[in-house]
């Protein structure tokens, strides 16, 4: 498959996706075809200088794919698109002009991580962003603000934020996040009793354990005497 | 546009979760390139990759396996990495030059070897894969085999034949082994390598035999068959018939091609010498018998008068000469000649010792033995004769030892043995003899002289065993027992390894008298006769008797005997060892440890080492533990560098017996190496608080430092001083003193011309050395056993012989400073008052005199060098090397002669950095590598490099008359009246000493 063919496919996809009522089934099929087409081009390059045209093509496919996956509710696919896009947003940022969708997709990814409670990955992702994006970009500000609220225990602020999401595609992830927060609150109630139980168990074990230590020490002494 | 660099493989990894196989394959391809950088990231998804590999429908399973393998490799989980690399099949490229491939290949080979060769598996038992495989019942994964085969192909196409051979041997792939040798370009070098490793690294006897069989074929296939090595292999294969056939073919000029029969004869001589040196007595006998048969010589039937009659051979015919070589006549004669001619023993050492230990009977005995060791094989018994009053103080068993020590001094003098010993041998009939102790000692001495060459002595010994009296004296002991004791040891020595049932029966009769003294020796003698046969009926019989008898001495004798019978049996001995090791009698367990030492001597077998180490720290009997530790020295003697590491912990044990064992293990394994590591361990032991540990440490030090010059090992001189100090110390324990006296004898053994070596120059285990050393370690219980160490002495000589088996005048060139391998300087007598002693002490003159007699230029050199040895300062500036060393020997000689003359006036001359040695030359083991034959007239037959021992040389100008070296061995004049106890008729010493300079 040549780049021309791929471009033709992409424009078909672009047309379908930007239509008022996009046919998600058709988009999915087109996306699969495109991804396979990309494997024959320089998809996800690992090193060296790449042609800008191919980079742009791949990036757009992934961007549409990411948004499409949210629309059809395939969040795992979104995760994959998001990490793949990072190659184009960061590693090859210098080779191609910045994408208009970049902030939106980065913000979505952050929210997705937050909703999955992958706080570590969330912060790793933040590290890659420059300070301008961090402070002024509304798409990115939104998940950051949410994270601060959660850390401070201001859960009600999070619940309130549902009303003012920066983009409609944030909604599914917001719902997920709220669900997560609710189940966390429930499990907190159990925590205390688990702690108590553990203490009790430790006391019982201590007795057996000390006996075993003495036994071991005696055994070692015996062996040592034999060897020397 | 700047090149961009990927910061994460997450994108690619994410592709693995796509549903389209094309995308997954694409991702795997990418990951294969990224894995070396991003393995940490990828390792989190390795489960996913494994799933892909396990998916039968997925087309790129092998790629998935390869990526998984690399990930596991980076994670350090080599077992899994190997498993997946095998799954990767062809994608795993053995030719790739990366650390990953190298690691996996080596793991793969390790596992393959472990599977093919379960004995070796013990080494790598830690790797989980082996355990799995072992559990699977040893069925080898076809993929593993395929990978190893690819490795072999690679080795063979790249010309790394040695690697291929090494792996083939370890994994027991005879087919690859054969192919590698066949394809190798430098066949003879590769064969030499095979020969070497097959003897050092292959622990399984059965497999070694099949390797050697291949080697024999390959050696014969060479354009010029390497017959020396063929015969060496045949010795290992125990195939005397083929050796005889080869010799016969050589005599008839069939095997030497164009060179013809004349050269063939010389080659045959050389092979015969090598066979004689390497093989057991029994093997050589069978070669002789077969050779005579092939040559159509009638072998006369044994008669009552002569049990082993000589066949009638045409004098000086090649076959007669071969016969003489194979029966040992020639070698023994030459060695005696060499030891006498070059004797450098220092009588002053003995005299000092004698003075210092005058009041103690144990040290008296020790001094006698030390004298025997110092003069072993030289035939010089001056020391004993000079002070017969002192000697006469030996009573009872001490007398036995004094007499037996004559056997050590005259070792190998088989022609004159009866003359020398006649005063001490039982007379028979009504004639009164020298007393039971002297007679017993005499028989033992006879055995020592005839050790391994017993033909002439055996009938006499058997007769004496039969004749010995059974009556008891007033004090309650049986005089005959003492005679039988000596006789049994003597018979065992003389008939060592002959496996003659009649002789075994004779000793059984002695055993059945159930006398502790005689029975002990009978047990040992039985073992010596049946040495290495592993005869299970005999073993069962001996074990039964050991269980029945009440005498501990007899049990010990039998235990030692059984151990001797299991010599070199390796795996075949395991059943019997097991039986003895499980016995409740510690003496039999002691025997089991000796049996392990002997059965696995020099093999380095892991199982044997484990067993010894286990017993060394767990048995309740000190004797057993001691024997187990000493055994380590025997099992590991080929790998002597390892031993200090193995025993270093044991040498610090709280148990003095274990420490003693550690000392002797070092002595045995590192004998004559001068190993600094060994000395480092032994030195603290020589200051041990326990007396017998000091004894062992000093003996071991002497063994390690034997023949080491001060230039080779700085410790040599200080160790000699240590012995002197211990002997001179007033408050020192007798045990330690005895050790020091023995050590002095050992370190100066054989006139400073012998070494202790458990393997022959070519690398065969020297049976008599191993047996001798093992029996020597029994001196713990019985001082007479000390004499057995004479079996382990080998003259360090290089003798060139011409086609008539005579020594021509030949020079050897040793490319080292004379002081490097010099004799230690003679002791300087304290004051003028002992002028007499000074004159006798300077023995180096013997050599100078014999050469001077011939007014040869060599004499000047020899003397000149003797001077330079004594006077030059080590480390003095070197004389520049001659630019073409081989060019003009004559001029070198004359230059040296002049130099020698100058030195008389100016002794501070610089030391030359080479040395010319006359035939027969003293070449210590380390010197062999720098020595070469540089002679215009003679060249060696067959042997490209000199390895010491006897070499046959070919004369380039046979028409010219040859200058031969005179034989200096005198016929000893011994009168019947000359007994040890008789001062009246003191005979002349064998060599009159003169003093000049």
Automatic annotation (TrEMBL), chain A:
PANTHER family: 26S PROTEASOME NON-ATPASE REGULATORY SUBUNIT 8. One of its GO terms (biological process) is proteasome-mediated ubiquitin-dependent protein catabolic process. This is CSN8/PSMD8/EIF3K domain-containing protein. The keyword Glycoprotein does not apply. Residues 103-183 form the CSN8/PSMD8/EIF3K domain. It comes from Capsaspora owczarzaki (strain ATCC 30864). One of its GO terms (cellular component) is proteasome regulatory particle, lid subcomplex. Keywords: Proteasome. The keyword Transcription regulation does not apply.
From TrEMBL, chain B:
Gene3D superfamilies: Leucine-rich Repeat Variant. Residues 796-965 form the 26S proteasome regulatory subunit RPN2 C-terminal domain. Coiled coil: none annotated. Belongs to the proteasome subunit S1 family. GO terms for molecular function: enzyme regulator activity. Residues 869-883 have a biased composition (Polar residues). This is Proteasome 26S subunit. PANTHER family: 26S PROTEASOME NON-ATPASE REGULATORY SUBUNIT (PTHR10943), 26S PROTEASOME NON-ATPASE REGULATORY SUBUNIT 1 (PTHR10943:SF2). Keywords: Proteasome, Repeat. Pfam families: HEAT_2, PC_rep, RPN2_C, RPN2_N. Residues 868-892, 978-997 are annotated as: Disordered. SUPFAM superfamilies: ARM repeat (SSF48371). One of its GO terms (biological process) is regulation of protein catabolic process. GO terms for cellular component: nucleus; proteasome regulatory particle, base subcomplex; proteasome storage granule. Residues 7-343 form the 26S proteasome non-ATPase regulatory subunit 1/RPN2 N-terminal domain.
């Amino acid at each position: 498959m040549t780049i021309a063919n791929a471009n033709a496919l992409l424009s078909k996809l672009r047309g379908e996706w930007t239509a008022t009522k996009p046919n998600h089934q058709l988009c999915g099929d087109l996306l699969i075809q495109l991804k396979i087409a990309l494997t024959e081009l320089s998809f996800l390059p690992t090193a060296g200088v790449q042609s800008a045209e191919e980079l742009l093509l791949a990036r757009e496919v992934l961007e549409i794919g990411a948004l499409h996956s949210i629309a059809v509710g395939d969040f795992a696919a979104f995760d994959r698109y998001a990490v793949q896009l990072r190659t184009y947003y960061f590693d090859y940022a210098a080779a191609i002009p910045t994408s208009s969708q970049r902030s939106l997709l980065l913000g979505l990814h952050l929210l997705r991580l937050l909703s999955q409670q992958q706080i570590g990955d969330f912060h790793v992702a933040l590290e890659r962003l420059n300070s301008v994006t961090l402070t002024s970009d509304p798409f990115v500000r939104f998940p950051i603000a949410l994270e601060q609220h959660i850390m401070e225990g201001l859960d009600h602020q999070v619940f309130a934020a549902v009303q003012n999401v920066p983009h409609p595609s944030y909604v599914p992830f917001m719902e997920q996040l709220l669900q997560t927060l609710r189940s966390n609150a429930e499990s907190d109630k159990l925590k205390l009793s688990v702690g108590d139980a553990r203490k009790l168990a430790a006391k019982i074990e201590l007795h057996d354990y000390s006996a075993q230590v003495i036994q071991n020490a005696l055994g070692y002494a015996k062996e040592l005497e034999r060897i020397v | 546009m700047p090149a961009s660099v990927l910061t994460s493989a997450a994108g690619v990894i994410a592709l693995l979760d796509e549903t389209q196989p094309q995308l997954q394959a694409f991702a795997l391809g990418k990951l294969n390139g990224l894995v070396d950088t991003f393995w940490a990231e990828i390792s989190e998804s390795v489960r996913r990759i494994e799933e892909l590999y396990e998916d039968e429908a997925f087309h790129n399973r092998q790629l998935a396996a390869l990526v998984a393998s690399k990930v596991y490799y980076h994670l350090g989980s080599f077992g899994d990495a190997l498993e997946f690399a095998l799954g990767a099949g062809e994608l795993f490229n053995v030719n790739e030059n990366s650390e990953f491939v190298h690691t996996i290949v080596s793991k793969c080979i390790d596992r393959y070897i472990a599977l093919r060769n379960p004995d070796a598996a013990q080494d790598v038992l830690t790797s989980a894969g082996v355990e799995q495989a072992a559990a699977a019942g040893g069925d080898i994964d076809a993929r593993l085999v395929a990978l190893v085969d690819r490795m072999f192909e690679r080795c063979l196409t790249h010309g790394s034949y040695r690697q291929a051979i090494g792996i083939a041997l370890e994994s027991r792939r005879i087919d690859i082994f054969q192919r590698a040798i066949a394809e190798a370009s430098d066949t003879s070098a590769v064969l030499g390598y095979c020969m070497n490793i097959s003897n050092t690294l292959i622990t399984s006897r059965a497999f070694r035999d099949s390797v050697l069989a291949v080697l024999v074929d390959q050696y014969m296939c060479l354009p010029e068959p390497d017959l020396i090595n063929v015969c060496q292999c045949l010795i290992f294969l125990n195939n005397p018939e083929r050796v005889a056939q080869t010799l016969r073919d050589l005599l008839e000029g069939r095997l030497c091609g164009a060179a013809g029969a004349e050269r063939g004869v010389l080659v045959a001589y050389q092979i015969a010498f090598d066979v004689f040196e390497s093989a057991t007595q029994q093997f050589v006998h069978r070669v002789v018998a077969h050779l005579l048969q092939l040559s159509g010589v009638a072998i006369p039937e044994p008669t009552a008068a002569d049990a082993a009659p000589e066949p009638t051979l045409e004098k000086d015919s090649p076959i007669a000469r071969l016969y003489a070589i194979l029966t040992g006549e020639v070698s023994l004669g030459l060695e005696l000649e060499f030891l006498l001619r070059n004797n450098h023993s220092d009588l002053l050492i003995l005299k000092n010792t004698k003075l210092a230990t005058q009041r103690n009977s144990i040290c008296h005995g020790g001094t006698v033995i030390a004298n025997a060791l110092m003069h072993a094989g030289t035939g010089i018994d001056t020391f004993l004769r000079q002070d017969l009053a002192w000697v006469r103080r030996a009573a009872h068993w001490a007398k036995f030892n004094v007499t037996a020590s004559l056997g050590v001094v005259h070792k190998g003098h088989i022609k004159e043995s009866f003359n020398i010993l006649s005063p001490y041998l039982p007379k028979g009939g009504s004639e009164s003899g020298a007393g039971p102790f002297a007679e017993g000692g005499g028989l033992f001495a006879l055995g020592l002289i005839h050790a391994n060459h017993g033909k002439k002595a055996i009938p006499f010994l058997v007769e004496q065993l039969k004749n010995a009296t059974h009556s008891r004296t007033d004090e309650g002991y049986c005089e005959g027992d003492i005679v039988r004791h000596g006789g049994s040891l003597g018979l065992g020595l003389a008939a060592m390894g002959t496996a003659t049932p009649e002789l075994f029966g004779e000793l059984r009769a002695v055993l059945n008298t159930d006398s502790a003294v005689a029975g002990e020796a009978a047990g040992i003698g039985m073992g010596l006769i049946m040495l290495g046969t592993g005869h299970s009926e005999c073993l069962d019989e001996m074990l039964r008797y050991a269980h029945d008898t009440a005498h501990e001495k007899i049990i010990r004798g039998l235990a030692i005997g059984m151990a001797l019978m299991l010599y070199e049996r390796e795996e075949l001995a395991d059943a019997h060892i097991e039986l003895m090791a499980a016995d409740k009698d510690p003496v039999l367990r002691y025997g089991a440890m000796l049996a392990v030492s002997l059965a696995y001597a020099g093999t380095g077998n892991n199982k044997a080492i484990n067993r010894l180490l286990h017993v060394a720290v767990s048995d309740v009997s000190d004797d057993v533990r001691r024997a187990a530790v000493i055994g380590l020295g025997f099992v590991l003697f080929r790998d002597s560098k390892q031993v200090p590491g193995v025993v270093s912990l044991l040498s610090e044990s709280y148990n003095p017996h274990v420490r003693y064992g550690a000392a002797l293990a070092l002595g045995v394994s590192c004998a004559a190496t001068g190993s600094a590591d060994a000395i480092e361990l032994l030195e603290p032991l020589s200051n041990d608080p326990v007396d017998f540990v000091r004894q062992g440490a000093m003996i071991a030090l002497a063994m390690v430092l034997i023949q080491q010059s001060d230039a080779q090992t700085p410790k040599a001189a200080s160790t000699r001083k240590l012995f002197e100090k211990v002997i001179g110390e007033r408050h020192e324990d007798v045990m330690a003193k005895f050790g020091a006296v023995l050590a002095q004898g050992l370190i100066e053994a054989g006139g400073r011309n012998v070494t202790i070596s458990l393997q022959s120059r070519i690398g065969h285990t020297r049976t008599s050395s191993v047996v001798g050393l093992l029996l020597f370690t029994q001196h713990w219980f019985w001082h007479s056993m000390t004499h057995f160490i004479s079996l382990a002495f080998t003259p360090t000589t290089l003798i060139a012989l011409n086609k008539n088996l005579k020594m021509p005048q030949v020079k050897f060139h040793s490319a080292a400073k004379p002081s490097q391998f010099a004799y230690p300087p003679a002791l300087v007598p304290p004051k003028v008052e002992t002028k007499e002693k000074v004159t006798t002490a300077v023995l180096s003159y013997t050599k100078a005199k014999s050469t001077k007699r011939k007014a040869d230029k060599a004499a000047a050199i020899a003397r000149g060098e003797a001077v330079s040895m004594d006077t030059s300062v080590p480390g003095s500036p070197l004389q520049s090397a001659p630019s073409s060393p081989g060019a003009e020997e004559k001029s070198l000689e004359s230059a040296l002669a002049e130099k020698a003359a100058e030195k008389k006036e100016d002794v501070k001359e610089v030391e030359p950095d080479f040395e010319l040695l006359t035939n027969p030359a003293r070449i210590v083991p380390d010197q062999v590598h720098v020595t070469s034959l540089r002679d215009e007239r003679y060249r060696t037959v067959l042997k490209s490099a000199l390895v010491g021992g006897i070499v046959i040389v070919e004369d380039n100008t046979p028409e010219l008359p040859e200058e031969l070296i005179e034989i200096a061995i005198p016929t000893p004049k011994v009168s019947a009246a000359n007994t040890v106890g008789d001062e009246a008729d003191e005979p002349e010493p064998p060599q009159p000493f003169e003093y000049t300079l």
